[in-house]
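note to self — DONT lose this again. spent like an hour looking for the file last time. sequence + predicted structure for the chain T wanted, 247 res
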Amino acid sequence: MAKRKIREEEDDESGAVLISVEQGASPRCRRSNRRVHRFANSRHQGMLNSGLFDCYLRNLWRNFPEDKISDFIYLDCLWFSLYTEESYKGEVLTWIKNKHIFSKKYVFIPIVLWSHWNLLIICNFGGSSQLEPKTSCMLLLDSLRMADDPMRLEPLIRKFALDIYEAEAMPKNKARVSQIPLLVPEVPQQRNEKDCGYFVLYYISKFVNGAPENFCITEGYPCFMKEDWFDLEDFNGFRDKLKSDSV
């Protein structure tokens, strides 16, 4: 059997580490075909897979104005899934440490587990003196909030955050992570069972374009994060453009 190995390469535009799988010494094909698809397999034929998701997100990112993305960074869409595998956990944490993600105000973490896409946004974690429950939070955006229980991810998310701070050797912040709110806004919901990945991409696009420079959760979510954040016609146009631009 051909030996499988994990490769990492850097995305110069986003600062993300991109993970791919190669089989033996075969010529490397397009990265979307070398993805670790077992983490993103769906029970719904036609659901967005990790390779296409990454392609769409990279295209989105390069088209954002530079002044819009200076406070943002995103992680590869398979990082969180790889983290849940004990054999990959150490590597994922090392890659995160090398990316200095806490130099940014907002960190997008796509999550694909249990045949469903969610978006985790880490807000205002900052450096050793900035992690405070009043200003820092984690937002979990779920397009099937009424059908599934998004809080089933909470134990994994909190362990992920704690392990990051342990890897960063930030013991003071590590002790405070358990106090940071994990919030689930009532954002617009999908109607098509295959659209969850596209909703995550749209959440990212809308958040980048609408996020304030600073916000405090004691005063509520950023004003744009509501159930009527966008309408389905707007979303459908976004999804169709993503598909047409990739052809």
